[in-house]
Amino acid sequence: MSVKLNSLINRLRKAKHPEWYEEEETKEANENADGVKIPSPGRFDPEMIEQFSDEDKLTDVDVSYPLMPADPEDGEMVYAWAHITWNEEMGELVYRVIEPDMNKRTEAVLNKIHDIMERSFDVTLSDLESGEADEYLEEKIDMIVDKYDLSLTEQQREVVRYYTKRDFAGLGKLQPLMNDTEVEDISCDGIDIPVYAYHRNPKFGSIKTTIEWDNHEELDKFVMKMAQRCGKSISVSTPLLDGALPDGSRVQATLATDIARKGSNFTIRRFTSDPLTPIHMMDFETENAQMLSYLWTLVEHGKSTLVCGTTGAGKTSQLNSLSLFIRPEKKIVSIEDTPELRLPHDHWVPEVARSGFGSSADEGGEVSMDHLLKESLRQRPEYIIVGEVRGEEAYILFQQMATGHTGLSTIHADSLEMLMDRLTTQPIDLSPSLIETLDCIMLIKRLRRGGKYVRRITGLYEVLGYDKRKGIDANKVFGWEPRNDEYIVENNSILLQDIAEQSGIDNEDIQKDLRNKQHVLNYMQEEQIKHYREVGDIISRYYSDPESVMEKVGQTFNSDQGQLKVSDA
Fold first, then answer.
1. pLDDT above 70 covers what percent of the chain?
2. What is the pTM of this model?
3. Looking at beta carbons, which pairs linking 200-204 to residues 24 or more positions away fall under 8 Å?
4. Edge-first strand listing for the sheet containing 348-352
5. pLDDT higher for 427 or 121?
6. Averaged pLDDT, 136-146
7. Domain boundaries in the chain?
8. Fold annotation for 278-503
9. DSSP of 310-362, one letter per residue?
């Protein structure tokens, strides 16, 4: 879009909504400034969103989209925008958070309101639902404005409301980033260092933002505020924080002490409000329908699977995706240290470990993953899902798999050799007989390819046996060819042969079922049915009434002949 066209559009917006632009001196300063015109907060117009295509170069990037609210309706007020552009001087992309401007008068009133609210706050926002918190804050702001006779225009009052709700109910200046569903990770490395955001767009990757802390005390307060939101404490004596925010985001933070030389720092790992499904995986080309139909059949028939990869490879997303294949009537118990899994199953018991109430575990109150796993056996689950195994919980999980329970979990390892090293040495230290209870191993990696980051399944292995001297005996069913970015079938499946023999059906019936599942998966991708509840509903219906599902996806299923025919329609 040309600069002249942008200027024309901006003038039209100002003519339509003049009340949402700052006073004349601010406007003149913006108009006279060099550089690219940045979209100002205002009422939402879908045409204001700038898109970025895969064909564009990074130097041509000029992307804008709303953050607060993240999904506005047409005409709804938007208070914060994301604006991603190429900075020629820095030679990199920059993520600008655009919020309402404030003149000195508005800023002074805002500071006064904040001061009054901090002294008179009579409710804990964590006890309120988000809607109630917004309503409460608006009433409180209006009451203070009227009581202290603070003269504000309606525009200024809206700006004050926005910043007050952002700072009290949210995470301050970081809240717009927290609202961005396209951001995976947020990192602050210390004082006078820009916050970095890792964007889900594989072309963008890690981007420098315009958010920055230049005051040690302010950053320390922010880290302490995050600890409170996580239900934990952080101090000079215990300067490390590992917790989860109310929205499920993982937080690791270090308070400024002798161990944090650049000042307090933190990393927030974001998760989508709705989990990724097998259809997302197909869209991302992390898996194809052939692989997923195979995994679907393994999960359906109770084969235990371990997802392996490095940090950020997408292990938890894969775990949640695989869990959608579990039959709806099966009892599931999930155990995590941070609540990330979301399943549509009614017969699901989600449990989360917690740390002790004191400064050490000895002071009591700790409920570890080991404890939860041990107790889960009394709940008689058919499927046990463990978010990640690192130590003793891995031994307990494999013990339960040996007693007939199906286990699904993740572990940090980027190869079969590293996986076996982790499983056979301390603190896990499994015996060969327990390793053999595992049925399938998935290796997933995050790779840079063609100027963007992608996630690929580099191998699906069936565990046939394990010997301490010879190592693992594994059958590699699927592999990935990096040269062509294609998945290939390397060997026939032994597990599918076992399923056929145990179920009393022949190989042809297994193959027909695999083809049907591929059709169902391809149909959902074609129709972009991706929400985990909708995907779970179709999978559930396939189990109970496959004929109706196959008809829905444009197939005719002949139950008498057991054949699948493509309909003329």
1. 83
2. 0.73
3. 201/52, 202/452, 202/453, 202/454, 203/52, 203/54, 203/58, 203/451, 203/452, 204/61, 204/84, 204/93
4. 348-352, 332-336, 383-386, 406-412, 305-309, 440-449, 452-467, 471-481, 486-489
5. 427
6. 79
7. 1-99, 104-174, 278-503
8. Rossmann fold (3.40.50)
9. -TTS-HHHHHHHHHTTS-TTS-EEEEESS-------SSEEEEE-B--SSSSGG
